[in-house]
Amino acid sequence: MAKIKITQVRSKIRRPGRQKKTLKALGLRKMQQTVEKEATHQILGMVNKVAHLVKVEEVK
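User: That's the sequence. What structure does it adopt?
Assistant: Structure tokens below.
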């Protein structure tokens, strides 16, 4: 599987609880934090729900 790098670029303040929980499930706790995850369907679905809060890059 391919890996992706997910970076939180916008704040979760004043966001719905589901979006906050999605960021937490992705392992993002604070601004500019970056995590690497496998690009599974579940992870890509979570990233899609918070796409306006994160930046995604493919790791080679």
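The first strand starts at residue 3 and ends at 8.
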